[in-house]
Structure formats: C-alpha cells, structure tokens
Amino acid sequence: MLLKKLHTLTLKSFLPPFISTLFISVFLFFLVTIVITYLDEFIGKGLNTLDLIKLFSYAWISLIPQCIPLAVLLASIMSFGNLAENYELAAMKSSGLSLFSIIKPVFVFIIILAGMTFLFNNFILPVVHLKFQSLLYDIRQKKPTVNIKEGIFYNKIDNFSLRVGKKSANKDTLKDIFIYDHSAHQGNNVQMYAKTGKLTTTADTSALVLILQNGNRYEEVINQSGLPSNKKPLSQLNFKQLQVNIELVDFKLKRTDENQFKGHEEMMNIWQIDSVVDSTSRFVNKRLFELERQSKLFFYGRISNFINNNSKIKTISIKQFYDSLSTADYVRSIENAMNIARSGASYIDAAELNVNSEKQSIDQLNVEWHKKIVVCFACIILFFVGAPLGAIIKKGGLGLPVVVAVFFFLAYFILTEAFTSLAYEGNIPVWQAMWTPLVIFLPISMFLTYKAAKDSAIFDVTVYYLWIAKLFKNKKLA
User: Fold this and answer.
1) Residue 117 to residues 62, 252, 349, 410, Cα–Cα distance (Å)
2) Using CB atoms within 10 A of its CB, is residue 134 exposed (0-12), middle (13-18) or buried (19+)?
3) Is the Cβ–Cβ distance between 182 and 161 less than 8 Å?
4) What residue ranges do the domains of the chain occupy?
5) Alpha-carbon gap, residue 141 to 344, rounded angstroms
6) What tens digit of pLDDT does each residue of 147-170 get?
7) Is 255 helix (H, G, I), strand (E, B) or coil?
8) Using CA atoms, how far apart are residues 333 and 475, in angstroms rounded to an integer?
9) What band does 294 get if pLDDT is binned at 50, 70 and 90?
10) Rounded CA gap, 403 and 388, in Å?
11) Is the pTM of this model over 0.85?
C-alpha cells in the first residue's frame, strides 16, 4: 500500500509539469513556425473566422508530436528535481527503494505515451497534415479583399474598373464614383457615374453591392442591325438611386480536392510509404536497366555492328580507313559521330536527372517513415536524461532545470536537423541519419542514470571547489 502511494505521488508530481510544458512548447512552436511564417499569407484576404480556426487547429495538432520529447525532458527534470530539492527522493531511497523503483510508474507512463505517439503519427497526423496543407494552399491562392483607394482606378475585379474620388471615415460612403463595366467584352460600352454611394457586400461575401445615388448610366449599343457601322445608338439613364451587384467569385476561398495532396510523404502512414518506396524503387531499377540496354544496343552496338559489317574496316586500321575517305565523306562521318555522341550524352543526362529525382523522393519518404518511429524512442531516452538530471541537480521549478533541459533539447534538435539534411542530400543512409542522434544520447542517458543511482554530485559546485582547493594545497605542501 505504501509503495502504491509513493508511485502515485511520483506520477502526480510528473503529470502537471508535463501537461503545462507540452502546452507551452506547442504554443511557442505554433507562434514561430505557423503565425510568423505564414502571417503574410493571411493579411488582407478577408478570411472567414471559421477557416482560420480550422487552419490553426490543424497546425496546433500537427505540432504536438514534435513537442512531446521536449515536454518529457522538461517535466522529468522539473518533477524529480523538485522531489530531490524537498528531500522526498532521499526519503524514498532511505526506505530501501532504488532509483529505478521510484521512476518505474513514470517510466511505464512514458512507454504508453511513446506507443500512443506512434499511433498518432501513423493514423491521425497524416490526415491532419492533409487538411492543413490543402487549406493553406487554398488560402494562398485566394485573392486579397477589395481595397479601393481614393482617386485611383481599381482593376482587380474581373470585367469592372472602379474609381472613387473620396471615402468617408468609416469607408462605406463613397463620393464621385466612376464605374466601367467590361462584362460584355466589347470595351467601355457601359459607364456609370454617381455623386455618392454606399459600399457593402452580400451575407456570403459572394458579391459587392454598390448603391449609387444621383448619377447617370450610359450604354453604347453595339451590333445594332439596320444601322451604318459608324453609327451606334446610346442609351442614357438618369437615376436617383441605382443598385449595382458585382460578383466576387474569384475573391472567395475555393476549396481544392484533398486527393490532389495525398502523394506527399507527410500525408501517408508507414505502410503507404513502404508501398510507394517499393514502386519507386522498381521504377528506378527499370530505368537503370533500360539505360544499360540502350547503351549496349544503340550507342556501343551501332559502332560495333558498323565495324563488323564493313569488310574494308576489317582489313585496315580505323586511321587508314578515315585517311582513305574524301574530304566531304570525312566531314560527314565526323558530324554523324558528333550527333550520335550528343544524342547519347543528352539521353544519359536526362536519365540521370530522372533517376536522381526519384532517389531523392525515396529518401524523403524514408525520412518521414523513420520520423514516425524515432520520436517515440526519443521520449524514452530523453526521459532517462531528464529524470537523473533532476535527481542530481536537486532543483525544481522554472530556473536551472529549464536551462539544462533547453540545452539538451537544442543539442538533440540540432543533431537531428543536421543529420536529416545529410540524408536529404544523399551523403549518408537515411536510417543512419535518423537514428544517430538517439545513439549519441543513449550513452549520455545511461551515464546520468548510473550517476543518479549512485547519488553522484557531478553538478555540485562545492565538490569541485573542494577538489581544486585540495589540489592546490597538496602542491604547496610539495
């Protein structure tokens, strides 16, 4: 019963900082990678609030797996540092419990968390990425909202050109309005002028509504039968109030079919990635086989067959053969040889570019495949970095633990990004690049766990101060 209460205490000390640090880290990543990066894509486009909420929700959810290792590292340092600072960890050890027994309930939670992270990465995250990328693409394609400036013709609305002399303070009342209607595609055959007017939009923002007051409408009737070509009738309308509806179809957010984005590696689970990698690898092998066959049958084969079929070349050397040709035949043969060489070089270059592009695509797919699994093991290894560190430094809260955690996470993040770049460039195998950072951190976690189990004071400045003082004292005595 007592052991159960201690395990509950340990777990309760870990969960609150884990949840809070996960929320804070996702929020910070969200600000840096989404809001700041894509802010220019949202400004001035009159986006629907619901569309923005959807986009930000998808982005927020997609960042959770990236932040879980950081949250585990921070929470483990803070929770076990707090237990050590309040001598609760020492009390547990004095009762006969080892460090491994103390951290066991949290370790079981981390194992479950790692499994849930894999399920999330494999089944939920591809769908979230698909919806986020498709919605972001549609927002990027959306035209900015109508912004009519005073005294300048606005021509960004299809088939219309508008000019406003002056706008009121609240921007809805206009003065000295000129409208040229080109919807008939016959020039400025419809023109409207008004002294004042009001500007609104329909409820679904599908049309711009202009209520014109005290003005004139002129329409030049074109292709009127029975009249000379140089004479065109003019229709004039004087009005006190006239409503003009201008469609804003191009200014609305048009949704693209999500199936067009499913080929990206972020939108696939590991089995789909395996299938695409397998089919792409077969295509690359087939392309290389065709290149080899083409080289043998066409480039090299044409030369060897020509030599074998020409009895004159069999009896004399190639140099003697060319010397026996006339100037015109010699020039023609050289030109033919150059054309064959250029054709072969172009074919090989095109094949090489195609093969390299497909290999790069395979590397990107494999990187995403390993990412879905690596992050799960990162949670476990970083936990065995954070928990021993907290027990050793014996400090809780948001001071030293946060600094140490950020240092270790930055080291892990930089290593991951560096090796991922090497994998994209094809310098090292993908599996080696993705797992090397964890291989580097594994001995660090084992060393720190061992030191914490032995109650080492490697972060106690006093120990090093006494050791240095003792060293200088021995030198003086010598």
Assistant:
1) 12, 37, 43, 21
2) buried
3) yes
4) 2-142+369-477, 160-251, 270-367
5) 42
6) 778 888 888 777 888 888 888 877
7) coil
8) 89
9) confident
10) 15
11) no
